[in-house]
Amino acid sequence: MKRAQEKGLDLVEVSPMSSPPVCKIMDFGTHLYNQKKKDKKQKKGQKKTETKTIRLSIRTGIHDLEIKAKQATKFLADRNIVKVVVLFKGREMAHGDLGFVKMDEFFKMLEDVAVIEQHPKRQGYQMTMIINPIK
C-alpha cells in the first residue's frame, strides 16, 4: 500500500480467490478506460443478424419473382436470414400445392447463395420457408 501511495497509483487486487491474493500497482482509472475501449471494439465487431421477409403470392409473375430473388440475394449477402412467405387469398387456400411450387421456383433462383433452414410449412393463410446464407 505504501509503495502504491508513494508512486501515486492504486493497489488493485487482480486475483482475490488465490492464496495469497495477487495485487498489482496501477492507475485504476486508466485500466477501466482501456477495458471499456476493448469491450466496445469487440462489441463493434459483432453483427446481429436480422430476419428479412419476402412476401409472395401464388399469382406472382416470373419477372416479379426474379426481382424479389435479387432483393433476397442482397439480404443474404449482408448475412441476414430471409423468411419467404406465400400468402393465400380466398379460394387459393384449396391450392396449397401451387404454394410449394412457387417456393421451389423461388429457391432455385437462390440455390448458389442460400441453404434452406426450414422447409416450406403451411400455417393457415400463409406458407413460410426460412433461408440462411451459405457459410
Secondary-structure-derived class: alpha+beta
Taken as a percent bin, the fraction of beta residues is 25-35%
Strand line-up in the sheet with most strands: 3-4-6-5
Poorly predicted residue ranges: none
The count of helical stretches stands at 4
Name of the CATH first level of the largest domain: Alpha Beta
Mean pLDDT: 91
Largest sheet: 4 strands, mixed
Query: Topology as H/E string?
Result: HEEHEHEHEE
Task: Kindly report the CATH topology of the largest domain.
Answer: Translation Initiation Factor IF3
Large-scale geometry: rod-shaped
Counted up, domains total 2
CATH homologous superfamily annotation of the largest domain: Translation initiation factor 3 (IF-3), C-terminal domain
Radius of gyration equals 28 Å
Proportion of helical residues: 40-55%
Care to describe what's here?
This protein is α+β, with helices and mostly antiparallel strands. 41% of the residues lie in helices and 32% in strands. The protein folds into 2 domains: 44 residues, Ubiquitin-like (UB roll) (Roll); 83 residues, 2-Layer Sandwich (Translation Initiation Factor IF3), CATH 3.30.110. α3 crosses α4. The radius of gyration is 28 Å and the shape is rod-shaped. The protein starts with a helix and ends with a strand. The relative contact order is 0.13. The mean pLDDT is 91.
